[in-house]
Amino acid sequence: MIPTPYLLYLGHSTDPVGIKTSRGLAVFRRDACVGEFRYDDCPFTLDLPRMTLAEGAAAGARTLVLGIANSGGTMGEDLIADAITALEAGMNVAAGLHQRLRDVPRLAALAQERGLQLFDVRDPPTDLVVGNGYARAGHRLLTVGTDCSVGKMYTTIALTDALRARGVTADFRATGQTGILIAGAGVPVDAVVADFISGAIEQLAPARADGGWDVIEGQGSLYHPSFAGVSTGLLHGAQPEAIVMCDDPVRRHMRGIPGRALPGLKECLEMNLQVARLTSPGVRAVGICLNTSAMELDTARALCEATAAEQGLPCTDPMRFGLEGVIDRLLQ
């Protein structure tokens, strides 16, 4: 386990989606966070105390979480320099980037010298097997999306909590770096060799006979040219009984690909159901979850109601309006 409490890193970030790991920890593990570190050119805040790296260490932070992401998951010199400063201040360092902390010689040497640890959250397990798609017992739900970073992790955690509130056993199964940091376990599926993606998810959510649900965090989108392969492997390995579609209604184009429009909800639902049927012939859609955080409350509520009527499925923003309708449809 990564030592807590955390100091959350925003650095020089100017992309609101790129800070999703730090933001996710601030939302779901706030009790484990002492503050945030950001430069003056960063326009965002997590509404945590702003601290320097030295102040964070003095306040008791045991780990600096480099909770930012960019395309390709690489570390620039400024990020490496800040990680060095954190180690010199006595903090461990954790990151969910594709470029590993341990592969930066300066960081590895300093961590060893100071008796501290580097945590590369995007390390997949070493005992993965190829998936087989055979039917397995248990209830499984997978969140899917029209694009990357549209709220799949938030929805998955909210669904897990909503099921538990109904007295139903449910487990959140994390598949990305933010979810893994929140849950303390999981598989960083986008770092898994392609042949093993479906098998990794079969291991993450194995057969169960207790009547409970595995609620599996989705990744990417079948319509995103960069990440559709991960989404496909997840659908096959999850073998979901149900899917919930996630969407950001104010998103203007696919993340990182200006000019490429997002798919419509109907076509995206149909495609996800079609792909899922390879390993789960009876899969069904049980709801749509919108990220309306950039919209006025009344406008957001009206959009959810209109979308529900248009798609014939319960539609909500799980963080604003709850999930009663979706859970009702799931358990009927």
TrEMBL record:
> Ranges for the D-glutamate N-acetyltransferase-like N-terminal domain?
46-124
> Ranges for the D-glutamate N-acetyltransferase-like C-terminal domain?
131-324
Q: InterPro entries in the record, alphabetically? A: DgcN-like, DgcN-like_C, DgcN-like_N, P-loop_NTPase
Q: Which domain of life is it from?
A: Bacteria
Q: Which Gene3D superfamilies match?
A: NAD(P)-binding Rossmann-like Domain, P-loop containing nucleotide triphosphate hydrolases
The record's PANTHER family line, in alphabetical order, gives: DUF1611 DOMAIN-CONTAINING PROTEIN (PTHR40690:SF1), GLL3100 PROTEIN (PTHR40690)
Name assigned to this protein: DUF1611 domain-containing protein
